[in-house]
Write the structure tokens for this entry.
Amino acid sequence: MASNLEDVLDLCLDAARRGGDLEAILRHHADVAGEVRPLVSLAGELAALPAPQPTPEGLAKLFAHLAAESGARPAPARRAHRLRRRLVAAAATLLVVVGGWGLLNAAAAAVPGDLLYPLKRLSERVSYALTLGSEGRAELRIEFADERLKEAVRKYQRGGGIDRRLLAAMLEEAVKALEQGSRLSPTGRDLVARRLACSCEFQCSVLNQMAAQASDAERATLEPYRSACHARCTCMQEATAEDKAQADRLSEAAERLRRLISELREDR
Amino acid sequence: MDHTELVPTVERARNGDRPALAELCAEFYPRVLRFMHYRVGPRFAEDLAAEVFLKVVRAIGTQSGSFPAWLFRIAANVVTDHFRASATQREASMTEAVLESVASRDQPAAAVAHKLDIARALEQLTDDQRELVTLKFIEGLSNADIGEITGRSPEAIRVLQFRALAAMRQFLSREEPSDGKQP
């Protein structure tokens, strides 16, 4: 019996999508294989068409819609109190912003749990995607690491306790910066290493200040991250020392830091 | 965000949890933007994508079933309204969309040219065919989700996808430079 072209194509597309055995289906329907094969290949090419990059203006419009609508819609009663606080915060935010870029700036101060926080992370992803080259990306990773620390501090100051996920994210961003840095030319590597060394010192100093204000229990939570940060400082000092094998040292530093992070994950 | 994370996030967003709703918007914005990019072209894509999320925020409390299907049904309706409102913009240029996307990337000329050919072939399709191709092959939605979005039966989807791909293939074969070989 002759195979139905539409059905065989659908079977093949499904197999291609799931990573199934496309050739087995085509062998089974050899009478239409010649016609179906190029169509499946074309479907794959369609999937590979380039994705557009969101622009700051487009994101600003999206943020404006979301923030404006957040203040307009009534909230379910059981969450009313918490939501009201958030909406008041969102409204206060809106008061101090003018236009789309203002909203982006407002999102910049957000911490996990805030309305604009996911949008802040989205704009970080967009910035990263729009940044070409390992040097720029390493620099961004360092900024993201510092930003995670600032969020942890803001959250702590608001009485939200020590957020271990933010501190772990800070360390992970630093690993990614090291990985990007190890792909650079000697001059680029040196710049990234020095920038990371400064960032480490800043992070150590902030964590020390947090520890000085913290309760015993909070200090115990903070301690592994503080130790990891100090260890990283040592790594970075070694990596920035004049040495022809700096790339190796950066990779080594990344590996040591990765081990520290996985130990922290296990502790959690 | 995989399925196991998506379901509870949608549930929280439905119950009025704004951070969960913002998380969904952040997660799906790039996909809706891409859909718009290939349906209406880059000129209107961001405006229409923002409009989709405005509708999402307003209607999330009534959401049910598959979230991607629900979201892209809204997106498809926004496109329909857009075309209805301005018939002259119906000929949105896919070539323009692809050119804009690849302009800043370091790609070999032949690869860019091939992508442009595919975009031109996409332009030749009927609106129904182009919608299906965008949903299925560019967005990667399942036939079940596409059925929910477009109201078509599985059989109708299979027929439409075959006709769309065959029409594109035919266009591309005509466009290939003549080298004496069969397409």
In short: The mean pLDDT of chain A is 75.
